Amino acid sequence: MTQWEQLQQLDSTYLQRVDELYNREVFPMDVRHYLAHWIESQDWERAAQDLSLASILFQVLLENLDNQHSRFVQEGESFLLQRNFRRFKTTFQSYQEQPCYLASTIKWFLDKEREILGSAMLAEQVKMLQVQQNSMESENQRHIDKKIANLRSQVQEMEHYVKCLEEQQDEFDFKYKTHMMEGNTNEKEKNEEMKLLQELLNRLDASRKILLGKMGQFLDSAEELLNTLVGEELAEWRRRQQRACIGAPEIVCLNQLENWFTVEADCLFQLRKFLRKVEELFGKVTYEGDPFKPQKPILQKRVDSLLVTLLKSAFVVESQPTMPQGKGPQVLRTNVQFSVKTRLLVKVPELNHVMKVTVMIDRDAPQVKGYRRFNVLGNNSKALNMAECTSGGMVADFRHLTLKEQKCGGGGKGINDGSLSVTEELHIISFETMFEWLGLSVKLETSTLPVVIISNSSQQQSGWASVLWFNMLCSDPKNVAFFASSPVATWPQLAEMLSWQFLSTTKRGLKSDQLNMIAQKLFGKQQNYDNCKIPWAKFSKENVQNGSFSFWAWIDGILMLVKNYLENLWNDGCI
To answer: HSE on the CB side for 197, CA within 13 Å?
Structure first.
């Protein structure tokens, strides 16, 4: 079975990752699909460094595209596929002078596929070993679903009550106006009519108070649900995403959260609609002691406050900044394209292609001497739309952004002359958009996890070490001064992170005996390593004993050796 066929058998969560991987023009999914056997049988790693082999594979690729196009024509396949393969060939022809770059690009895609397969395999193992934890997560979901159902039920009840109240008020209004127009002179009949009108008004007043009470109860429920979604579920997703960025087998699909956020937003907008009806009823009939007068503004303020909090929290970075051939997310190189995706977890079909998202970098840059400044180049404004997400979510997928360093006043480029190295200098990419709908206007902002910006490929190893350390230890996503006083890592934390590196690159993490060997190299022979700690400098900056390289450079070298030459033996457990 080919690697591509294995990917197609994964569940929807991992298929979405495959969709996101191929959601770019660099290497079309159609080409990957129809040429799967040929693509996987070539040595792209060697071709990336051998111009002669790369040129041969480049020509064979073009021939295969022509052959596939001919098959489509002969078999009467869709006109669109025929046109696409003609366009794909034209796109690939642009690599004629850079066949090695094309080979390295294809190799990068195949490596990313293996990472997805590895994550899926480990997730299946974790699922079998952690039945209790999964049961707990399912219980949390059921608890939230119950709250969602309760919120919907309250909305339906209020909708019915508003209609009944309107009919009740219309009856009072009609009888009151009739009484005033008739001008009955009979004192007894007049008193009887006034008594009836007072009874109707008393019932109307009681009904208004009941409706206001229901609205207050609804807002209490909505606030409780909001605290759960934002304070617990979204916060936990952010932490899972941060861990997934450094290889952890975490599930970071947003579909469930999006469903919950959307339902709550719909319910809150329904309440705003009911409050407009309250305003209308108040304008037609009011009286001394009318509860609508003092309570309506309070309810309006509460619902608007909840909606603003919900919407601001719902704007997230779904996929962290990534270069096509980088070691992982959050390491960017100047003048090299990268991609990043934002998502609004509140689906509003009416706003499809309406909300423009703009990109900026280091909006709140630290005032530190030597801190480099960058400009974001490329199409840095894009509309949230429902076409770029397989589940129909509202996303803005920026695929062709680049960073260029600003020149400092003296005419040369900025140089970080502080105590931090370039790969310890952290930057944040931010996004802004405006949500304007049904009379509500809210400015939404979100930002990436800190990124490391390098200018040379030789800095990738050190840059990735910084990302690993930050995501392993820092819970504050805006802490760009993290490396000014970096905390130490415990051995259990470090061991878990190192195992993820092998797992995400191959299909197997580190065994306990392998981890013990690494711990012994770091801390010397001990009975137990759980209380051992390692500082940042010892992890990435200082040379190991009797060596000319850091601890991380040593681990990364082993990782590359396994990945490039020993992967099958490693996956089979022979090493």
So the answer is: 15
- The three state secondary structure string of 425-478 is CEECEEEEEEEEECCEEEEEEEECCCEEEECCHHHHHHHHHHHHHHHHHCCCCC
Distance of alpha carbon 301 from alpha carbon 298, whole angstroms: 5
Burial class (CB in 10 A: 0-12, 13-18, 19+), 558: middle
Residue that is written with structure tokens 């230890």 in the block: 473
Please give the Cα distance from 552 to 423 (Å, whole number): 14
Cβ atoms < 10 Å from Cβ of 227: 11
The pLDDT value recorded for residue 136 is: 54
Global pTM exceeds 0.90 = no
Q: Which amino acid is at 513?
A: D
Report the C-alpha gap between 262 and 394 in whole angstroms: 11
Instruction: Residue 83: count other Cβ atoms within 10 Å of its Cβ.
Output: 12
Which residues have C-beta within 8 Å of that of residue 471, sequence separation ≥ 6?
Answer: 242, 243, 245, 246, 330, 449
Q: Which pair of structure tokens corresponds to residue 534?
A: 């390692």
Q: Look up residue 546 and give its two tokens.
A: 């009797």
> How is the beta sheet containing 331-333 ordered, strand by strand?
331-333, 451-454, 426-427
| Dist. CA 445–CA 451, nearest whole Å | 18
- Segment 78-83 shows an average pLDDT of 77
Q: What is the pLDDT of residues 122-173, one digit of tens each?
A: 777 666 655 545 555 578 889 999 999 999 999 999 999 999 999 999 988 8
Q: What is the pLDDT of residues 511-533, one digit of tens each?
A: 889 999 999 999 988 888 999 99
